[in-house]
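Weekly sync, protein design subgroup
Attendees: M.S., D.O., the rotation student, P.L. (late)

Item 1: inverse folding check
M.S. brought a backbone from last month's batch and wanted to see whether the design step gives back something sensible before we order anything. D.O. pointed out we never logged the input encoding, so this time it goes straight into the notes. Structure tokens as presented (352 positions):
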């Protein structure tokens, strides 16, 4: 008989009109949280929510509890002084241990070992971001042992059956709790789940297959990359015994250019033009990222007007590139000579 009268609905955190499914979901959630075999579990709390579930999951017992409240005797549905369930605990009510406790006893089966990911930063010039470049980075990391190629065995020696797990790669353990005995399966720590160990461990890595080392890695930066973009090199991160290596992430920082700036797939630049050239028109030779080109300044060009040089921008796809956009900046003289002032006065008379 339960000696401490509690509100079963409050224990499960459900309203009194909760459905059977709502009660079951609430119980499963709390069972995960308070199970005593889980780190941070609470055996006393787990007993309480089980007691509440056994009553509220049964329609007849729930009706009696709703009718009599705290005077409900609960006989046969509590826990014995030894901490185990009494004979009244009915396992036929759909109490799925596999559902609730599977995560505690599956020993991590099905999980693939994977090394840690690494992130590095590199800086490239504006021109390199447009045309692409190859850079080398020097990284200190846990990598695959080159002497044994990651096997952990001395070159020329063979692997033998792990004596700890008898070559199965898994170790069965039996745990006892107030619910009874449970058998769990975990990965063998000696062989890493492979069932085999080196007969003669590699002298370089001590049989682990991995070791701390410095590695130079070549990074191909694609043409057209933008500032802040990330390049992922699969399998170039840290290695781990009996598992896959992590990835290397390279964050690219593009230096600012004194003359050019990028707007989408186009490159923008300013061109200073004399007032007379803006009025009469002429040709200007300018330096682009592709070399020198000649640009025709049309007569009567306006301040801020954009001239377009096709195919001189950033790469788009399939060999195509954006355009170079040239913004016209008309320079007005700060001081005029006497002759120049006379000429400007004549232009003024002409209405220019």
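Designed sequence read out in the meeting:
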């Amino acid at each position: 008989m339960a000696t401490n009268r509690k509100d079963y609905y409050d224990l499960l955190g459900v309203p009194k009109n909760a459905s059977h499914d709502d009660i079951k979901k609430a119980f499963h959630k709390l069972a995960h949280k308070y199970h005593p075999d889980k780190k941070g579990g609470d055996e006393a709390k787990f007993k309480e929510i089980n007691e509440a579930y056994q009553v509220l999951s049964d329609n007849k017992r729930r009706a009696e509890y709703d009718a009599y409240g705290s005077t409900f005797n609960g006989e046969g549905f509590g826990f014995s002084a030894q901490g185990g369930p009494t004979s009244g605990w009915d396992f036929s009510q759909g109490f799925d241990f596999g559902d609730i406790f599977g995560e505690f006893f599956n020993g991590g089966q099905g999980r693939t070992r994977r090394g840690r990911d690494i992130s590095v930063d590199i800086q490239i010039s504006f021109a390199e971001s447009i045309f692409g470049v190859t850079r080398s980075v020097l990284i200190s990391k846990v990598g695959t042992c080159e002497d044994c190629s990651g096997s952990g065995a001395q070159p020329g020696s063979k692997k033998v059956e792990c004596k700890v797990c008898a070559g199965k790669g898994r170790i069965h353990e039996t745990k006892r709790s107030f619910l009874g005995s449970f058998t769990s399966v975990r990965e063998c720590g000696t062989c890493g789940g492979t069932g085999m160990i080196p007969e003669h461990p590699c002298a370089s890595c001590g049989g682990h297959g991995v070791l701390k080392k410095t590695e130079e890695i070549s990074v191909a930066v694609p043409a057209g990359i933008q500032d802040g973009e990330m390049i992922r090199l699969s399998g170039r991160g840290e290695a781990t015994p009996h598992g896959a290596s992590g990835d290397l992430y390279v964050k690219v920082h593009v230096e600012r250019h004194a003359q050019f700036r990028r707007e989408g797939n186009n490159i923008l630049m300013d061109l200073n033009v004399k007032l007379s050239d803006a009025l009469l028109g002429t040709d200007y030779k300018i330096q682009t990222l592709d070399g020198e080109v000649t640009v025709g300044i049309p007569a009567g060009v306006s301040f801020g007007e954009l001239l377009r040089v096709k195919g001189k921008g950033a790469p788009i796809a399939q060999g195509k590139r954006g355009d170079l956009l040239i913004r016209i900046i008309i320079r007005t003289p700060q001081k005029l000579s006497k002759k120049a002032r006379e000429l400007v006065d004549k232009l003024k008379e002409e209405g220019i």
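Discussion: DSSP finds eight helices and 15 strands in the chain. Helices lie at 8-12, 20-34, 43-56, 59-68, 97-105, 126-131, 275-280, 338-349.
Action: P.L. to compare against the previous round before Friday.
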